[in-house]
């Protein structure tokens, strides 16, 4: 379980995050959803340990990680631009982080991740030869071989569209279920959050507007901002949301 208690952050005396409190159960997929500048990426970086918080506590499986370095938290992130090395082939990108981590994972396990993400035909290709979806899968594989305790994804679908986007959404869900891996995703797209996540944390001006399941967000928006943000982004009337997402959210 991941628990955030009273998280606060300021940049140049401007409040970016204030009084952030929520809990994530093991194996859940949670989306951090909000408009640009709402604080969601800063919150992701605080959880990772990339950005220091000004106040609050981060508890993971009963251990206080508030002052533990990013290196020692055991969390891993897939950045929006994938951050792959163009001069290396797909396989070398996948195992790059294992150079100084001998014994962390066996070659058999590496191959299992590769098979799971259907990357075997692409291992010798350079990054420039891969499609967007293939690059995303390589980035996911590179993260998974590091045996993360928590998987963080920064706008994982923003550069994808159509069938490829739906395929990666299914992959992310399969990873969380198959490996019981708690997953936190930053997105600005309500449709992505609603169809991908177990729970959604909606952030407005550095504070929590609502934290709940997709069903709760759709049927019981906590305030006008949640209602208007969801509807404006989807460009449809509220009654049609149920039809769009089918029986899953009925």
TrEMBL record:
Domain of life: Bacteria
Alphabetized InterPro entries for the sequence: AAA+_ATPase (IPR003593), ABC_SmlMolc_Importer (IPR050093), ABC_transporter-like_ATP-bd (IPR003439), ABC_transporter-like_CS (IPR017871), ABC_transpr_FbpC (IPR015853), P-loop_NTPase (IPR027417)
Keyword field contains Translocase: no
Transmembrane segments: none
PROSITE patterns, A to Z: ABC_TRANSPORTER_1 (PS00211), ABC_TRANSPORTER_2 (PS50893)
Gene3D superfamilies: P-loop containing nucleotide triphosphate hydrolases
Pfam families in alphabetical order: ABC_tran
Keywords: ATP-binding, Cell membrane, Ion transport, Iron, Iron transport, Membrane, Nucleotide-binding, Transport
The ABC transporter domain, residue ranges: 2-230
Protein name from the UniProt record: ABC transporter domain-containing protein
Species whose genome carries this gene: Lederbergia ruris
């Amino acid at each position: 379980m991941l628990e955030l208690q009273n998280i606060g952050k300021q940049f140049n005396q401007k409040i970016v995050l204030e009084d952030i409190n929520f809990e994530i159960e093991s194996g859940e997929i949670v989306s951090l959803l909000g408009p640009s500048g709402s604080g969601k990426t800063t919150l992701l970086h605080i959880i990772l340990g990339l950005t220091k918080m000004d106040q609050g506590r981060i508890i993971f499986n009963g251990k206080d990680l508030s002052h533990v370095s990013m290196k020692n938290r055991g969390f891993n992130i897939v950045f929006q631009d994938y951050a792959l090395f163009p001069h290396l082939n797909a396989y070398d990108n996948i195992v790059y982080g294992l150079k100084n981590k001998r014994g962390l994972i066996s070659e058999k396990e590496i191959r299992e991740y590769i098979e799971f993400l259907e990357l075997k035909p692409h291992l010798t290709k350079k990054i420039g030869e891969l499609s967007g979806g293939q690059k995303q899968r390589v980035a996911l594989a590179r993260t998974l071989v590091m045996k993360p305790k928590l998987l963080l994804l920064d706008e994982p679908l923003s550069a994808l569209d159509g069938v490829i986007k739906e395929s990666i959404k299914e992959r992310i869900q399969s990873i969380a279920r198959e490996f019981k891996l708690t997953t936190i995703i930053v997105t600005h797209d309500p449709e992505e959050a609603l169809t991908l996540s177990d729970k959604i944390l909606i952030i407005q001006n550095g504070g929590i507007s609502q934290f709940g399941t997709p069903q709760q967000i759709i049927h019981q928006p906590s305030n006008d901002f949640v209602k208007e943000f969801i509807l404006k982004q989807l460009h449809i009337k509220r009654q049609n949301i149920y039809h769009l997402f089918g029986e899953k959210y009925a």
